[in-house]
Amino acid sequence: MCGIVGYLGLNEKKEILLDGLQELEYRGYDSAGIAVIEGKKLHNFKAIGKLENLREKTKTYHSEGFGISIGHTRWATHGKPTELNAHPHLGAYSYVVHNGIIENYQELKHELQADGVTFLSQTDTETIVHLFEKNHKTTPDAFLAFEKTIQRLEGAYATLLITEAAPDTIFFAKQGSPMLIGFSKEDVYFASSDTPIIGKADEVYYLEDGEYGYAKAGEVKLFNAGGEKSFTKQALTSDKISAQKDGYRFFMEKEIYEQSRVMSETMIGRVRDESIYFEELGEDFFDGITSIKICACGTSYHSALCAAYLFERLAKVRCDVEIASEFRYKEPLLLKDTLFVTISQSGETADTLEALKMAKRAGLKSLSICNVDNSSIVRQSDAAILTRAGIEKGVASTKAFATQTMVLWMLAVYLGQTRKTLSSVLAKTEIDAMLHTPKALIVGDELHAKLHRLSKRYLHGHGFFFIGRDIFYPLALEGALKLKEISYLHAEGYPAGEMKHGPIALADSELFTVALMPRTMHYDKIKSNVEELSARDATILAISPEPFALADDFIQTQYATHPMLEFFEMMVVTQLFALEISVRLGNDVDMPRNLAKSVTVE
Ligand code: M6R
After folding, report:
1. Mutation to probe ligand 1, out of 294, 345, 356, 404 (largest number of atoms < 8 A from CB)
2. 229 & 305 share domain
3. Residue 180, domain CATH
4. What is the DSSP string of 12-44?
5. One domain, residues 137 and 255
6. Per-residue CA distances from 93 to 165, 167, 173, 284 (Å)
7. How much is the mean pLDDT over the chain?
8. What contacts 242, CB < 8 A, 6 or more positions away?
9. Domain that residue 229 falls in
10. pLDDT tens digits, one per residue of 233-264
């Protein structure tokens, strides 16, 4: 995810910006840049890749005296990771950095292009700086021009703008994306989280949505829709690791809470009113393809299993899924009309990468669904769709799974539309549901508190069965994997209808069953499967929108109009359930024993 740093003062600005950006590296990025105005002179540097590249480019530059400066690390969403797409973006005499998504950027861009503005990048951000300069022509007061600019922006943004028209001032605005202002005796800092300013600033103000203003030497003015605002600074923490967690106890917890937001990023530019669009896929990408084979490991394998239901149901394309480590040694039959899909958060998983190489040797066309651009799997694939989850630090994958599943769902609808196996009415239903997904992923305080309370009853026993049917079966597998990874308790995912073919022999009060009981998918069937377990005294935690009398514990879900909305809401419940049990057991949630985030060995 992108990171912002800003500094206003007398100290050497380049080092402050580069050090600040270094502190934001944990968020992930693929290019970086800085812009400084000292005196009236503007300096700008950008580089793709790691910050060392930017350090190298700026090594002979040192700022002098009072000045204003902004910096940015970019995680590509709109447009590839190139220097032109890196921030700060330049107008004729101003620079801007921005985190978030300007949802109406196409409309603004067309308007500005009609006025003769030439865009250099493919980003949504560049519209801000051109819009500012357009407004500045008719509104010479730079702050009023900035105010006018942000009034036109829709979507999420945290943005800093500097301009030669006001060379002592940094303009700022926040809506939806985080930003703070740090204060030391003489200097003012901006950042998208605490870490870049710890050790530099003493006090901080966390901007609220809708706030904007300007900073110049010794003066910070804050406004919102109601006019000028006073604000209270607070002392700044000195603990960097906890600052990186944005106030959450664990990275995994932070990543669970982030899912709602990153899901919007996964969809942006891809989910349109009536159709799905992938700029990564040429129009003829699926020509000659009659079936799909997906290979992946762990959590990514679970999203693949889910995709198999969706591809066959929505796109009417045959889809087989295999665990990559099994696929590699089975001497598989590989036919050229099969599209070979790999799914991986890291893009470096050895078994998945080797499976991809095998498929390539057999002449299959390949597509990867991955969270890390330029990773080995992405580079080896004919095409890649990035999941845009942002860097995932918790070893137990959460937001990567959510965004993988979303991409696969979008791909199924895309295929259904291009192959005309999905009517426009049904496609519209799917797309409407997609657009509601971020809501279904919001973690309510009440839900989290309930799972915290309830978790104390699940610390013993002889194991867990997570059960579900259809797409809720892979979700059951994923719920069980989450729990075992971080609690070290035995857990299995099972198709609910399969319990009576063996596992039900284990049923007694010490067997915990987590039942995924969606209203929109085979509710009566799963209900009777759970009743069979209850009759054998198994302890039941039911997750459902429908009250269920036999449940020992019950979590009532809200979104019951579409199976995928139920899927994502239940996913959050299972993630928090695992997290709270792990916390109670005193385990290391983010770095569970024996596990690595990226498994680059066989
Ligand atoms: O990076 P990948 O998605 O290829 O990783 C695959 C698995 O190693 C990974 O999903 C693993 O199962 C996670 N720890 C699950 O939480």
Report:
1. 345
2. no
3. 3.60.20.10
4. -HHHHHHHHHHHTGGG--SEEEEEEEETTEEEE
5. no
6. 7, 10, 19, 43
7. 93
8. none
9. 3-244
10. 998 877 777 777 888 999 999 999 999 999 99
Closest CA to ligand 1's atom 9 = 298
Using the atom order of ligand 1, give the atom closest to the CA of residue 395: 14
From residue 30, how far is each of 4, 111, 391, 430 by CA, in Å? Answer: 14, 30, 11, 32
What is the full DSSP assignment across 548-600? -TT-SEEEE-S--SSHHHHHHHHHHHHHHHHHHHHHHTT--SSS-TT--SS--
Domain-terminating residue out of 400, 428, 456: 428
Indicate if 64 and 173 belong to the same structural domain.
Answer: yes
Contact between 419 and 317 under an 8 Å Cβ cutoff? The reply is yes
Residue 164 covered by a domain: yes
Q: What is the side-by-side order of every strand in the sheet holding 512-516?
A: 491-495, 464-468, 512-516, 539-544, 553-556
The CATH number assigned to the domain holding 521 equals: 3.40.50.10490
Give CA–CA dist 237/319, Å, rounded. 51
- Look at residue 433 and tell me if it is in a domain: no
Amino acid of residue 344:
S
In this structure, are 399 and 488 located in the same domain? no
The rounded Å distance from CA 343 to ligand 1 centre is 10
Using CA positions, which residue lies closest to atom 14 of ligand 1? Answer: 396
Q: Residues enclosing ligand 1, CB less than 6 A?
A: 297-300, 344-346, 349, 352, 395-397, 485, 595, 598-599
Domain final position from 227, 244, 261: 244
Q: Which residues are catalytic?
A: 2, 597
Token couple for 302: 């679970």
Radius of gyration from C-alpha coordinates of the chain: 25
- Shared domain for 342 and 197, answered yes or no, is no
CA 93 to chain centre: 33
> What percentage of the chain has pLDDT greater than the value 70?
99
Residues 453 and 319 occupy one common structural domain: no
Q: What is the pLDDT of residues 398-409, one digit of tens each?
A: 999 999 999 999
Nearest residue by C-alpha to atom 7 in ligand 1: 298
C-alpha span between 312 and 458 (Å, rounded): 37
- Looking at ligand 1, which atom is closest to the CA of residue 377? 4
Instruction: Give me the residues paired with residue 170 across strands.
Output: 215
Pocket test for ligand 1, best of 486, 599, 601 (most atoms within 8 A of CB): 599
Looking at the predicted structure, is the pLDDT value of residue 81 above 80? no
Determine the distance separating the centroid of ligand 1 and the alpha carbon of 377, expressed in angstroms: 14
Residues 25 and 112 in one domain: yes
Q: Are residues 41 and 81 in the same domain?
A: yes
Q: How far is the CA of 287 from the centre of ligand 1 (A)?
A: 31
For 175-179, 565-569, 582-586, which range has the lowest pLDDT when averaged over its residues?
A: 175-179
Alpha carbons within 13 angstroms on the beta-carbon side of residue 596 total 9
Q: How many separate domains does the chain show?
A: 3
Ligand 1 centroid, distance to 297 Cα (angstroms): 6
438 belongs to a structural domain:
no
Query: Ligand 1: which residue has its CA nearest to atom 4?
Result: 344
Residue 346 belongs to a domain: yes
- Position in ligand 1 atom list of the atom nearest CA 352: 4
pLDDT for 482 equals: 98
Q: Which atom of ligand 1 is nearest to the CA of 346?
A: 1
